[in-house]
Design a protein that fits this description.
The complex is a heterodimer of chains A (426) and B (261). Chain A is α+β, with helices and mostly antiparallel strands. Helix content of chain A is 27%, strand content 33%. The radius of gyration of chain A is 28 Å and the shape is globular. Chain B has one domain. Classes of the chains: A alpha+beta (426), B mainly alpha (261).
Chain lengths: 426, 261
């Protein structure tokens, strides 16, 4: 048995744009029309769109492989071809063993059946035998944490319960190749953690995992090697650290405003640490951002702003030379302005985008903006979530029995009947 | 094709679960499930009795119990054929989530729909047996033809079911065409009437592949005779050709299912 369980060989996928006939009512007139006016229609038939071009990679037993890309990069198409729902236009896929896809884990459920019946239904959809499911039934139910509701029709479930039941079944398929598509974004934090543990266990047991995400942070945490897709083409593939560096560097060229007309433009932005140019930092580390401006004609009352957005594009930090007490500045034609910001990156694990803006405050004119000017990756030793890192420590933790008077007080203060938790699980 | 059939075999438990799902959902309230199984055959029998009564009045005869039995015997398999085709026609378009998200042999959908309808046929057959007992039709060794007749019937339903389910995925109006065809199909099929009433011209009606099957059911159940062997062989050949054609057609289109929904 070979070590490689999944191999994609020069896979191409083409879609046809243009008119699609999904009813005979439209097709028959179009066909008769085609017979009389042959040339006109064939033009529109030729509009082709390559969703994937020359995609090749292989995944070994016990390896987690990531596919990253922005929306429309071809991730979903790659995924559908991997899971055999679509056939590639050209190229081969070789899968050695059972493949299961956690694409949308609840598609197989039937509303009127109970949780238990749906476990069997969904399990057989995923390719398990009923006997196999029966032997794992207790584990599946325990994993989902839905013991009390397992004989309730799933139409009464909340969406979180739905997802938990679906993932619990999928997590017990024990496939040779597991395809994961951002399913980890469902469910509460504890359940997500359980799922990640489970996937790591599968990998240790020799399964291969293909993880598809637009979030590099998840990929970096999980996959040893990955592939970056852009407009259907492979930009780079290899060890995650290399791909990550490449991915971060690609952001530097993006930006630049209306260069011809703007009197002042940003000419250079560099992010560095003490040793020089750098895009990867530890939480709490200091970073320096060098910005260079060129004036093409005289500009007065200028200010330069630096702001940071997180991976979901929320602004999390914003300052400017003016707000830092340096007033505004004036540049004459041909002047080169240089400024260095020092920032302490009290940021949590993830990807952040520093951006630069040159503006004049009193007239609210933006002259040039690089957004993002770069992408930086921050890693943190401690497990904190969110954007900011407050460097938390647990100082004291005690447990004691409540005194009788406290209990009595608690009863008095308890919520009224309409405010009390309804016992709805989700 | 051999590999595809092997794959279908490995997914046999899923086929069972799909059938179980359809039956379970329908019979969740047992009374309604049972009524559902006999509702359509009952309505067809009642309509047939009205038509037969009209025939009897115009020809100045009495309506005989054997005639009622004959209509009843034919309406149960006809109801199966109609609802199998209708259910399998919607089986793919009604499960878009599964068709576009998870890989497995998609013929499981029409096949599951047909099996679930076969279960209804069995339930309705029990009711039919009671009716035939009440009408004192009696039995004979010719009843041994029934398994063969059922086989031909199920094959025919499977073939047509696979054709229409795949076609309706690509052309949404196939469903309406099938509905119209099934509604008027009863007039071109000997359910209310017998082929014998048309004398020599009856053979044209038997070209409808469902006709020799339904005629076969009445001949061996109510008349205690063997079915017309050659016409039954014609239906059998037709059914096998439809199953093969339907399967090849379905499998040929299957890779494009996810793209065209």
């Amino acid at each position: 048995m070979s070590d490689i369980v999944l191999r994609m060989e020069h896979v191409y996928k083409m879609f046809r744009k243009g008119e699609v006939f999904n009813s005979l009512r439209d097709l028959i007139p179009a066909l008769t029309g085609k017979m009389f006016r042959r040339q006109e229609l064939s033009e529109s038939d030729k509009r082709e769109f390559w969703a994937l071009q020359d995609l090749s990679f292989e995944v070994r037993r016990g390896e987690a492989f990531g596919i990253i890309g922005h929306n429309g990069a071809g991730k979903s198409t790659a995924l559908k071809i991997l899971s055999r729902i679509m056939k590639p236009t050209k190229g081969n896929i070789i899968v050695d063993g059972r493949l299961s896809a956690l694409i949308e884990v609840t598609a197989g459920f039937h509303q009127d059946l109970t949780g238990r019946e749906n476990i069997f239904l969904y399990g057989t959809i995923m390719g398990m035998r009923r006997r196999e499911i029966a032997s794992k039934l207790d584990d599946i139910i325990a994993f989902s944490g839905l013991e009390d509701f397992i004989d309730t029709p799933v139409k009464r479930y909340s969406s979180g319960m739905y997802a938990r039941l679906g993932f619990s079944v999928a997590a017990h398929v024990q496939p040779d190749v597991m395809i994961v598509d951002e399913v980890l974004s469902v469910g509460d934090y504890m359940f997500q953690k359980k799922c990640v543990e489970r996937m790591k266990e599968e990998i240790r047991n020799g399964a291969a995992v293909v993880f598809v995400s637009h979030n590099l942070k998840d990929i970096a945490a999980f996959c040893s090697s990955c592939l970056l897709l852009e407009r259907g083409r492979t930009v780079i593939s290899g060890p995650t650290q290399e791909v990550l560096s490449n991915y971060l560097k690609r952001f530097r060229t993006i930006g630049a405003g209306d260069l011809d007309r703007s009197p002042v433009t940003i000419s250079k932005v560099t992010v560095r640490n003490e040793d020089g140019e750098c895009l990867r930092f530890q939480s709490g580390e200091r970073a320096w951002i060098d910005v260079e401006l060129r004036a093409h004609s005289r500009c007065t009352k200028l200010s330069l702003s630096v702001y940071i957005t997180n991976s979901t594009n929320e602004g999390i930090f914003d300052t400017s030379t003016e707000r830092l007490g340096h007033g505004n500045f004036t540049l004459d034609a041909g002047d080169v302005y240089h400024v260095t910001f020092e920032l302490t990156l009290n940021l949590a694990n993830g990807i952040f985008h520093p951006s630069i803006l040159v503006y004049r405050y009193d007239t609210q004119t933006a002259y040039d903006r690089w957004e993002p000017a770069a992408a930086i990756y921050v890693s943190s030793e401690t497990d904190v979530r969110g954007s900011a890192h407050c460097f938390p420590k647990v100082i004291q933790q005690t447990i004691r029995t409540a005194s009788d008077s406290e209990l009595a007080l608690g009863a008095e203060c308890s919520l009224g009947p309409d405010l009390a938790p309804q016992g709805s699980p989700s | 094709m051999k590999e595809e059939l092997q794959e279908l075999y490995t997914y046999r438990e899923l086929l069972y679960m799909m059938m179980y799902r359809d039956i379970k959902v329908r019979y969740k309230q047992s009374v309604i499930g049972f009524l559902w199984a006999i509702l359509m055959p009952t309505l067809i029998v009642l309509a047939g009795v009205v038509v037969r009564f009209g025939f009897a009045v115009t020809s100045g005869k009495h309506l005989e119990t054997a005639e009622i039995a004959s209509v009843a015997v034919k309406s149960v398999p006809w109801a199966f054929l109609v609802s199998s085709i209708r259910f399998s026609c919607n089986s793919l378009t009604g499960n878009v989530g599964l068709v576009t998200k998870i890989y497995f042999p998609k013929e499981i959908f029409p096949l599951g729909a047909i099996l679930a309808n076969f279960f209804d046929l069995c339930v309705a057959s029990v009711a039919l047996a009671v009716l035939l007992f009440v009408l004192r039709i009696g039995w004979s060794l010719e009843l041994l033809w029934i398994p063969l007749l059922l086989l031909v019937l199920v094959l025919l339903a499977t073939g047509i079911g696979m054709l229409v389910s795949a076609a309706s995925l690509f052309f949404r109006d196939v469903k309406y065409i099938v509905d119209v065809g099934l509604t008027f199909g009863i007039f071109f099929t000997p359910v209310f009437y017998d082929v014998g009433m048309f004398g020599d011209k009856g053979k044209w009606l038997l070209l409808n592949p469902a006709a020799p099957i339904l005629e076969g059911f009445t001949t061996c159940i109510t008349r205690h005779q063997g079915p017309d062997f050659y016409w039954l062989a014609y239906s059998f050949a037709f059914a096998i050709a439809t199953v093969l054609g339907g399967y090849v057609f379905f499998k040929h289109l299957e890779p494009a299912f996810a793209e065209s929904i």
